[in-house]
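Private note to self, pasted from the team thread so I don't lose it. Backbone tokens:
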């Protein structure tokens, strides 16, 4: 397995709409494993292929507890599609591996029904709520060229983009108040 490079804001690739996967083969499964290793090492709980510069509809997620001795429970989502969502809303503090060290509260549907292909190409459907539902929505947004900061006010979003653009030009890291949350 190989660790992949995660692209960050202001890279314009993050705004690309990802294309569907047409074939799942051994090469695809190696890529899924590389994505999962990259996500764990970052550390994060979700990673979309576009975040490593590959505009395909592929996501890895693992929201299982990261405590010693706890089994991992990765999900490999190929061509994921949210087919329905509940009316109830929930708010989570989100972060993103492509927008490092910045966190903000985002309100989303509290539950979703997701249809996807697993790593063997079999169609699956799951009902998700809580953190898993939030993570799924966050990662599917990536596949559509949308970032969690798009849910913030225009003022806050523009401030974040300006800080990352300025930092990219100067080769520094943008400064935000520290948080302990995991990033998606």
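Design output:
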């Amino acid at each position: 397995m190989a660790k992949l490079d995660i692209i960050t804001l202001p890279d314009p690739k993050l705004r690309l709409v990802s294309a569907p996967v047409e074939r799942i083969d051994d090469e695809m499964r190696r890529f899924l494993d590389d994505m999962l290793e990259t996500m764990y090492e970052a550390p994060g709980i979700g990673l979309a292929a576009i975040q490593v510069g590959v505009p395909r509809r592929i996501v890895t997620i693992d929201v299982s507890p990261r405590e010693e001795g706890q089994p991992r429970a990765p999900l490999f989502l190929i061509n994921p599609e949210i087919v329905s969502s509940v009316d109830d809303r929930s708010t989570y503090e989100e972060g993103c591996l492509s927008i490092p060290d910045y966190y903000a509260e985002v309100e989303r549907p509290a539950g979703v029904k997701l249809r996807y292909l697993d790593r063997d190409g079999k169609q699956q459907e799951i009902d998700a709520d809580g953190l898993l539902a939030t993570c799924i929505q966050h990662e599917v947004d990536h596949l559509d060229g949308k970032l969690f900061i798009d849910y913030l006010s225009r003022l806050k979003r523009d401030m974040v983009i300006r800080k990352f653009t300025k930092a990219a030009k100067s080769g520094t890291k943008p400064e935000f108040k520290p948080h302990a949350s995991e990033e998606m």
